User: Which sequence fits this backbone?
């Protein structure tokens, strides 16, 4: 078990709880029924407080385990994997960026154009490099065909999709 | 009840389009279930936007078809590739694959399909009889009873999912915190909106759900780690049902036992088929006369896993329909399907949308038969589909998920929410924080607050008023008993070790 990582996760949740509690102070408290009931501040403060307590418990528990592991010279338990962005990491990062770009262009270029671009980019990203050339024409036709087909299908289902530049 | 059932079946068979949609749902579910790396949740996320323009009954009929197909499809790759298509079929590999390697892949597939059908049907029967009774009971619930149910469900899921109870509870709290964004219940005070108009209406369920489950799954699969080697697919032929009558007879006790395990686990929030198949397998092995043969290719193992995982379907639908509490990720998306049509499941559902509910019941029975027919008849075709590359499927899923998120309110903010929660889901997976408690926390956050505040209003701020509500006390007592038993089990295990 990676105790250092667990402590890091605990610290993250503690900071989140602290920020959440701080944010709860700006919630307007209005009690239409007098002082007998909870205001809209109360539940966020309860949730934030509970999360702070639980994250402290998580940090303390793992810190004690880490100390015991260090005392027993179990170095493997305290070793932290080094963060390294390999090919898989790059693929994930680029996929997230492509999705963000797709959403950004969704209303600007319209559904059909943005979807064609996204499908082209994402499929070319994920396909093994050796197969790119052989499948290029199929991928282009598939991206265009599917985007138009989906637009027609969803507008038929009375769903509004932006037309953008084509509108 | 029979009249309503008749009306449900009549509604399905009134139009060939309905039959076609259910057929499509079941087939797509089987394909997604069979493809390693893609799950039932991804299939449901993809189909949600398609149901947007349909009637509530038809859309839920199609979605439950996807659910049944998806849960059953996992056995195909488990037996033929030794890779479970979904986590619900992990235990199917243990004996299904050895059977396939012995040249009995047809028998393993046949047994798996038939038991999936039986497991689903038995759980549907239980759901049909239990749900209306439970709904009639829960309709009498006041704020304190509803508050107790939400606390019970939240704590139970947090303690049952994942390795650490604290992490489970933190995840549930995070979900409840996300639910506080927007206007507060009762007095509509603005909370955590940071001056944004979009945040005033809070996060809708669909982007949160689809983001956490489907988008994170797609992003993680895009790393190429789920690439499968399809060259090891075993050849097979299914003759008849794939097994003899005497073999079936010898498994009757096993089938009933595993159906009950699946049903029970399905009813508990947050656990689902992924745990049910493993528990059922281990119970069957421990109670077998020949436990040493398990893992070498005995049909008992396949029967246990496939009956139990499908039996969770009916079980998970019970709390969804009667309390509005989803039993697992798939039923959480079905809840999204209800909400897409402006309907909130709960005890009133049987009164306000009775026909739609019985149409769903009828559709589930029809889907189970269809699942069996499609899997027996189209097995060779599904094996070909196993060869569809992930680089074509994953981008299409993203497009459909974004359409679904955008369709809810026609606002791009929800599509951004999808990516935001997708990244959160990915980070949670990486750091071992369980996702199901967050989902349940998000869903139950609002009823938790509303019922607590309402209860306090009715009792003039006296929290001890809860002691006058025996049903609420019963839920708290159950919770205490559950924690007591868990602690006792842990101590006994430590003593044994």
Assistant:
């Amino acid at each position: 078990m990676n105790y250092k990582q667990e402590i890091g996760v605990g610290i993250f949740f503690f900071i989140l709880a602290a920020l959440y509690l701080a944010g709860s102070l700006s919630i307007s408290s209005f009690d239409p029924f007098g002082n007998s009931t909870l205001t809209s501040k109360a539940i966020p403060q309860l949730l934030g407080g509970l999360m702070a307590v639980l994250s402290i418990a998580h940090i303390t528990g793992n810190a004690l385990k880490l100390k015991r592991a260090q005392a027993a010279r179990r170095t493997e338990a305290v070793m932290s994997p080094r963060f390294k962005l390999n090919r898989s990491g790059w693929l994930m990062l680029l996929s997230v960026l492509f999705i963000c770009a797709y959403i950004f262009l969704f209303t600007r270029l319209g559904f059909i154009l943005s979807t064609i671009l996204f499908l082209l980019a994402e499929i070319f990203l994920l396909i093994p490099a050796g197969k790119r050339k052989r499948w290029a024409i199929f991928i282009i036709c598939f991206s265009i065909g599917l985007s138009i087909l989906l637009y027609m299908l969803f507008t038929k289902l009375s769903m509004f999709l932006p037309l953008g530049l084509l509108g | 009840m029979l009249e309503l059932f008749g009306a449900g079946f009549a509604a399905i068979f009134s139009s060939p389009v309905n039959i076609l949609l259910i057929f499509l749902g079941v087939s797509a579910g089987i394909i997604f279930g069979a493809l390693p790396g893609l799950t039932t949740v991804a299939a449901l996320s993809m189909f949600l936007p398609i149901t947007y323009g349909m009637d509530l009954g038809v859309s839920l009929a199609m979605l439950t078809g996807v659910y049944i197909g998806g849960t059953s499809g996992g056995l195909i790759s488990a037996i033929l590739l030794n890779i479970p298509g979904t986590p619900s079929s992990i235990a199917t590999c243990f004996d299904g694959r050895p059977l396939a390697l012995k040249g009995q892949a047809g028998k393993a597939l046949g047994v798996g399909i038939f038991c999936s059908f039986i497991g689903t049907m038995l759980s549907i029967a239980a759901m049909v009889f239990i749900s209306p009774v439970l709904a009639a009971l829960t309709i009498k619930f006041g704020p304190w009873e509803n508050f107790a149910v939400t606390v019970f469900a939240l704590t139970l899921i947090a303690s049952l999912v994942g390795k650490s109870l604290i992490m489970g509870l933190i995840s549930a709290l995070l979900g409840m915190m996300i639910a506080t964004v927007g206007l507060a219940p009762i007095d509509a005070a603005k909370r955590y909106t940071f001056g944004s108009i979009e945040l005033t209406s809070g996060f809708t369920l669909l982007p949160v759900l689809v983001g956490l489950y489907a988008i994170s799954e797609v992003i993680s699969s895009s790393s190429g780690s789920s690439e499968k080697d399809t060259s090891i697919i075993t050849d097979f032929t299914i003759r008849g049902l794939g097994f003899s009558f005497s073999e079936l007879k010898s498994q009757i006790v096993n089938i009933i036992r595993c159906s009950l395990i699946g049903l029970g686990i399905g009813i508990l929030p947050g656990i689902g088929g992924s745990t049910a198949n493993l528990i059922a397998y281990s119970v069957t092995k421990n109670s077998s006369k020949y436990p040493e043969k398990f893992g070498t290719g005995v049909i008992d193992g396949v029967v246990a896993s496939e009956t139990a995982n499908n039996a969770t379907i009916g079980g998970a639908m019970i709390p969804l329909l009667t309390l509005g509490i989803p039993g697992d990720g798939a039923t959480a998306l079905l809840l999204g399907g209800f909400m897409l049509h402006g309907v909130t499941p709960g005890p009133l559902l049987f009164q306000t949308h009775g026909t739609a509910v019985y149409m769903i019941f009828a559709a589930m029975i029809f889907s189970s038969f269809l699942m069996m027919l499609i899997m027996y008849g189209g097995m060779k075709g599904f094996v070909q589909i196993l060869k569809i590359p992930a680089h074509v499927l994953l981008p299409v899923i993203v497009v459909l998920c974004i359409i679904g998120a955008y369709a809810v309110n026609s606002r791009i903010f929800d599509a951004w929410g999808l990516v935001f929660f997708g990244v959160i889901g990915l980070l949670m997976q990486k750091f071992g924080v369980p996702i199901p408690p967050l989902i349940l926390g998000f869903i139950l956050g609002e009823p938790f607050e509303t019922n607590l505040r309402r209860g306090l209003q009715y009792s003039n701020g006296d929290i001890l008023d809860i002691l006058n509500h025996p049903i609420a006390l019963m839920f708290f007592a159950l919770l205490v008993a559950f924690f007591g038993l868990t602690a006792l089990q842990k101590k006994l295990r430590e003593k044994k070790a």
Notes: The first strand of chain B starts at residue 182 and ends at 183. The longest helix of chain B spans residues 105-138. The beta strands of chain B are 182-183, 190-191.
